[in-house]
Structure formats: C-alpha cells, structure tokens
Amino acid sequence: MEVLKIATAGSVDDGKSTLIGRLLYDTKSLTDDKLEAIERNSKKKGYDYLDFSLATDGLVAEREQGITIDVAHIYFSTRKKSYIIADTPGHVEYTRNMVTGASQAQASIILIDARKGVIEQTYRHFFINNLLRVKHVIVAVNKMDLVDYDQSVFENIKTDFEKLNAQSSYAEQEVTFIPISALKGDNVAQKSDTMPWFKGESVLDYLEALKPGQEEHTAARFPVQTVIRPKQDEFHDYRGYAGKIYGSSLKVGDAVTVLPSLTSSKIKTIEFFDQKYDEAVAGSSVTITLEDDINITRGDVLVKSDEVPQSSKSLTAAVCWMDGKALVPGAKYEIQHNTNRILAKIDSVESVIATDYSGEDGSKNQLTLNEIGKVNFKLSKNLFYDTYAENKAGGSFILIDLQSNTTAGVGFIG
Amino acid sequence: MSTILKTNALESEAIYIFREVVAQFENPVLLFSGGKDSITLVRLAQKAFYPAKIPFPLLHVDTGHNFPETIEFRDKLVEELGLNLIVRHVQDAIDEGKVTEETGKYSSRNMLQTTTLLDAIEEFKFDACIGGARRDEEKARAKERIFSVRDDFGQWDEKNQRPELFDLLNGKIEIGQNVRVFPISNWTELDVWSYIEKEKIEIPSIYFSHKRKTFVRDGLIWSASKYVYREEDEEVLERIVRFRTVGDMTCTAAVESEADTIARIVSEIKTSTISERGARIDDKRSEAAMEKRKQQGYF
C-alpha cells in the first residue's frame, strides 16, 4: 500500500490535535478501548465534548502541562493509503522539531485559527515548508464554526497568506486552502454543507488524491550503505552494493560512475532478496552488482555517468541549529552526507535568516538553538554534492558534535 | 519483458535501517521474543543481507513463563535459517538475588526482563539492540526514535533525543552506551499482518484460533497455567481463542476468535475495534506504564 507522510505543526489552541483526532475518528482508526479512554479522560477534565488531543499527546509531561513536545507519530489508513503524521509543536523553541518533522514529509498541514488569522507561527511553519521544499501544503483555516462559516473571513486569510507565498523560495510548491472545523468535522474527512461557497475538496479527499511517489524526478543517487560479500562457496566472487535509490530509477546496463573515485562501470544486476530485476524505482532498497571489479566502500555513491554532480572542498548551506551549544566559526563537526562522514570546519556564519520573512541579519557571527542561518564550511576532503533544490538526498546533511556525538544541526546546500 | 521492482515503502525503510545498523555498529544483536514482530524482523534482516547470512545473533530473554509453542517455534526457525541464538534466563537473575519475584494476583516476570536484558548487553558488549517495537502500539512508543540512545543503565532520556532527519541516522555513541534500533517503527499492526500474509511467513500456532483453558479477570481472558496466579472463584473454562500479541503467559491476554488462517486474521484485524495492546495486561497498570518502563531500560 502507498504510504503518505504528512507533517503538522501548531500550538495548543489552534486545534491541531483535534484535527488529527478527527481524522482518526472519521477514518475509524480509533479503536474502542482508545475511544473509551478519551471519553473517560474528557469527562474527568469536565469537558462536554471529546478531547481528541488526548489521543496524540503521548508523554507524561505533555499530559501534565497540556502541551505537545518533540515529534509524535500518528498512524491511520484508508482503503487507498497508509498515512503517517509527524506532529510537532509550533512555538519558536521547537523550530528544530518542526524541521525534523518536515524532513520526512511529502505533504504538510498548516493550521490557522479563523478568529486570529495569519500570525507569527504561520510565517514560521510556512517558511520551514519552503526551506525543506515540502511539495504539498494544505492551509487549513480552522474553527470556521466560531465565525459562522463566513466566507469573507476565509477569503481575507487566504489573501494575507498569498502575500506570504509571494516571498516563498519554492515557487513550484502547491498551496491549497481549505476552511474547516476540526471539532465539528466540517471539510475534514467529508465535504460539509455548512460552507456551500467552498468549491474545493475536504482535507482527506485532497490527501487521498496525491501521488507522492510519481512526482519527484531528479538525478539518480545510490549511496552505498554496506558491501555484501557472502562467505559461501556458491557466491565466492560475489560483491553486492547494498543501498537505497534516490531521485529516479536505475536500470541494468546503466553506465555508472563511482564517487569520489570517478571510476566507471555498468550495472550488471539489480537484486532484491532472491530476485533479479531490470529496473528499480527511487525509494527501493536494493543490492547492485557491477560489470567490473572495482574498489567500492560505504560512503561511496553510484551515479549515472552523465549526471556526475559538482565537487568542492568547501560549501555553503542553510543550517537549522539543533544544539544548546552555539555554532561558531572555527568549530569542527563531522558532516554526515548520505552514508559518508567527513570532517568540516565552520568558516563563517554569513547571516541569520528570520523565519518570519523579515530578512537576514549579517551582524551575528553565530547560530544558536533553533536559529536558521547561512553558513560557510571548509571540508577536510573533496566532496561531491548537489544543491538541495536539485536533489534532496544529495543536497542535505547532518552535523555531528565531535564530543557529545549528538546531531547538532542539519544543512541544506545552497 | 522487463521486470520493474515495485517497492514497498515500509519494507524498503526497514531494510535500509538494518543495513545502517550493520555499517555503523560493531556488535549488534536482534532481540527475539518469538512474537510476530520479531519474526517479521528476521525476514527483513534476511532480505537486507541476502545472499549473505544474517550478520548478527538473536537474543531471547526467557522469562521461563513462555508459551511452549513459542519456544518450539523459535528453535525451529533458528535451525532452518542457521542463525546464532543466545538465550538468557530471568530465573538466573532471581536465583542470584538481583531481582525478586513478584507475588500476588497480578504477579508477572515482565518487569524483571529488563535486568536480564541489561546484563546480557553488558556480558556480550552489544552496542546495538534491534527490536520489533512499533510506534503505533502505545503512546510513549510514538515518540521513540529509530536509533534510540541509552546510557549504561539502559535509560531512555525522552526529553533529550537526537533529531532524525531524512534518512540520516546517527549511531555515534560512547563506550558503555548502546542504541536501541526499531526498523519497523512506522508499521502498524495491520501492516505487519499483511506482510506476514504476503510473504507467507510462518508464525507460532498460538496466533491462530485454538481451544485453551482460560479464565476471565477484569474483562480479559487469561491462560490457566501454573505460572499465572488465579483466585479460587475465577472459574476455568475451555474457550476458542487466539493471541494477538505474544509476551509471556502472565502478561498476555487472549481474544475469542475463530480466525484459523492468516487471511482470516487480517480480516479480523481490519474490522477489530480493540487495539492490540488492549490485551496487554502490563499496559493496564497505569496510563504512564510504558513510559516508566522505558525510562528504566525496558524495550
């Protein structure tokens, strides 16, 4: 079955948990015991409606404080698709969590409270969806029931949002506006007759029609994860390169170049378990063998010989900083780019980018937790890379702190 | 005619994770319970490294209160695939006085497994423990990372987890730390069953409808066994049941079911209105039961 990964971000009051709960409820994804627990807890809190947020807020701290921390994953399915929602909080101090959620997503839902309109958080959510180039964005104008399902409220918010969209760095992004009431279920799973002026689809109908697997076609990239060498007689000379294909499909007979050695060969077989295939599409975890016996190890990347990317000992990237210790010039980190790790030194912080589209600040020479900025790196070795706009897998990396080993940040090569 | 591999996104993701484990760690192990999720993991590992054999051992933490069908199945699987199986017993930790057997109506060795697991990690110096936990099972598990770092006490620091972006998994750790790895994090119960059906994977007989001596407590169907405490007024009856999830006898309840084939199980789950862990006695202890256990090093 097809899987669609969706990111949501929002604050306690804009009804995001209610929207997710509503999607689960209307697709009959909540089992009786979970539903009973929600009913019980809602009653205990003295609510006269079902508090669906209880279905999604997982940790003890969250239940105590009534807030969502971190990234939670929620699952539901229809006849057509399996859905995975990565749910994150929306405040500025959770920017790193929103970036994490969006990095996995093929679609994103931005919630706006109809009574409040476009607020600072909306800017930030949309900015992150631009930066990470999430193809489909649904702007759900929620709580329409509290503004008497008034079309002009919806249209005004739409106009405000489109001003924002004009500043987007990702022109091909598909932005769709849907007026909803998560609490009442209007336009969530089904089209509602409370808003006959709205001609579009419900949130779920829109998601059901998306075909994420078929739309992104960029240069094929095959980062080698590990080399398979069975120690059995029948496979004596077998050398299989295990990895996942990104960008577009690979075929038997394709002329390929190995990065960084730039040696060339042809694809001899594409294997998945005990079967051989002529072609495998992007997203497949396969094992590839080559016509020639060349030295390939983890971290190397197979690309088509006519699609070799640029290489350099330096690079510039938009970085989202995720660590309490600030990023400062001169500091060294390990860059994990695909399956390859190399040492890198921060050359300079060019600017800190405001997530509300108000511009860049070139006066600060550091990045602190949850800030996004343009950073110049010097690399210990020559690296072959794409820009993020050309190729998501070849144009992104994480930064690993050499002392704590933690993932300190993520970079999008510009 | 040309053949094109049509990829299954969840299967591809799991295989990718297995390969990252082998590339990033020196001494991984697969935690095997004999349940359907760990059996599915074995199949995925087989696919990830074919034609080579699965390049890590299996570890079973045996509570001593297992269903005999599970143990039988485990031994057959290990034999057929030529796997390396390590078994460590909760009984040993009890005998050594490290843990105390629970007593009373709800006594179970489920909590005691943690000590045996942590001892085995130390004994074999495992740096990555692969498990079949899924985010859809339970609320605290919904926040679990694919690579989840534990300190040398096995503790999970849920507020300070590493961000996981794209497919970029960071398995760098210090000596003494280890990583719990969850390749089927993003699968649901139905995904697992559909996969078992499609791949024709064999599973222990207790998953299928059978006759069993049982009694009812708190609305759940318990196995009547010498390992399960029973009050005198709790009446034992033979019922047609099966298990949806398999822990040991003291923490797994049965469901009444006529489903005797995988296809029937799949259709039963599609129409089921009770969640899988609804039959886990261990989760009923409190709303935060799983989160507390995880902080202490439980899987």
Automatic annotation (TrEMBL), chain A:
The UniProt record lists the EC number as: 2.7.7.4
What's in the keyword line of the UniProt record?
Answer: ATP-binding, GTP-binding, Nucleotide-binding, Nucleotidyltransferase, Transferase
Q: Per the record's keyword annotation, is Transferase included, yes or no?
A: yes
Q: Which CDD domains match?
A: CysN_ATPS, CysN_NodQ_II, CysN_NoDQ_III
Q: What Gene3D superfamilies does its record include?
A: P-loop containing nucleotide triphosphate hydrolases (3.40.50.300), Translation factors (2.40.30.10)
Q: Which Pfam families match?
A: GTP-eEF1A_C (PF22594), GTP_EFTU (PF00009)
Broad EC category:
transferase
Residues annotated as domain Tr-type G: 1-215
Which InterPro entries does this one have? CysN_GTP-bd, CysN_II, CysN_NoDQ_III, G_TR_CS, GTP-eEF1A_C, P-loop_NTPase, Small_GTP-bd, SO4_adenylTrfase_lsu
Q: Does the UniProt entry include the keyword Nucleotidyltransferase?
A: yes
Tell me what this protein is called.
Answer: sulfate adenylyltransferase
Gene source species: Leeuwenhoekiella parthenopeia
UniProtKB/TrEMBL annotation, chain B:
Supply the Gene3D superfamilies for this chain.
HUPs
User: Is ATP-binding found in the keyword set?
Assistant: yes
Organism field: Leeuwenhoekiella nanhaiensis
Q: Keywords for this entry?
A: ATP-binding, Nucleotide-binding, Nucleotidyltransferase, Transferase
Q: Does this entry carry the keyword Nucleotide-binding?
A: yes
Entry EC no(s): 2.7.7.4
* GO MF term list: ATP binding; sulfate adenylyltransferase (ATP) activity
Name under which the protein is recorded: Sulfate adenylyltransferase subunit 2
What single Pfam family name could you report for this chain, choosing any that match? PAPS_reduct
Phosphoadenosine phosphosulphate reductase domain residues are 27-253
Family membership noted in the UniProt record: Belongs to the PAPS reductase family. CysD subfamily.
A GO biological process held by the record = sulfate assimilation
